[in-house]
């Protein structure tokens, strides 16, 4: 591709490892719509980028698109990783391949959110099933019961009871615990952002939480199918979404949580038939709820 070859020669080979202010200025002067091109690229890729995706002829253009989006379109984004990358770009004067990859994955998540929003999706303003499960765990005597859920755009949520001395005792807080699986950036998303709260009895969503569609989408998935979502989340985070521990038995891996969490949260657990489905597990759960 002529465009890509010219971009590679512009940065004299070092673009494979980092993009500097000088490199970015040279590419930006030659090409238009860098953000639009990068957005189309990451959307069509259909998966998260890895570093190897940048070791191609178009790598410099992708890196320039990432910087342009980071510093202009996402200049006011408070997501902790983007804040750190803007700081690195300003203070150090360059981004590494790994950092560019992280920014592009954030852009990809933004593109996916926009596609979702275009579908005019609507979310519940009450999550009574989630609130009921939280009450069940609390009443069972579990110490500080928490629910760990990951969103489609990489946020890892912590859902917990507000403390007795907090401003909202009896409420359920929805907090951010960081981003899912990014060993190259251990501080990625570690801000612990507060998204909002649910009423502990009715599961009603407060006004602050209603502003976060990605979080609401995740909560709704759990509300609609707690056992199915627990199983899916276990696959995403690599552990039980209730206690955070690694699952070690076939029975636990089949449902996404272990016997202790099953008892504490009032969920079905035990020998799972060879061809059991999420629907069957959900039916068991609904039967238990109806009996209480």
Descriptive overview:
There is one protein chain. The protein has 12 helices and 6 strands. The protein is of the alpha+beta class. It folds into 2 domains: 2-118, no CATH class; 128-291, no CATH class. The chain has a 4-stranded antiparallel sheet with strand order 3-4-5-6. A two-stranded antiparallel ribbon has the order 1-2. The longest helix is centred in the middle third of the chain and has 22 residues, at 97-118. The radius of gyration is 22 Å and the shape is elongated. Residues 1-16, 179-191 and 272-278 have low confidence and may be disordered.
Q: What is the terminal-to-terminal distance?
A: 66 Å
- Shape descriptor reads elongated
Mean pLDDT score:
80
User: Which residue ranges are poorly predicted, with pLDDT under 50 across at least 5 consecutive positions?
Assistant: 1-16, 179-191, 272-278
Residue fraction in strands: 5-15%
Major sheet summary line: 4 strands, antiparallel
> How much helicity do the residues have?
40-55%
Task: Tell me which oligomeric state these chains represent.
Answer: single chain
Radius of gyration: 22 Å
In the residues, how many domains can be counted?
Answer: 2
Give the total of beta strands.
Answer: 6
- How are strands sequenced across the largest beta sheet? 3-4-5-6
- The helix count comes to 12
List the helices and strands and how they pair.
Blueprint: H1 2-10, E1 18-20, H2 21-30, H3 34-45, H4 59-73, H5 80-92, E2 94-96, H6 97-118, H7 128-139, E3 146-150, E4 155-161, E5 171-179, E6 194-199, H8 213-224, H9 226-237, H10 250-255, H11 259-265, H12 278-291
Antiparallel strand pairs: 1-2, 3-4, 4-5, 5-6
Helix pairs in contact: 2-4, 3-4, 3-6, 4-6, 8-9, 9-12
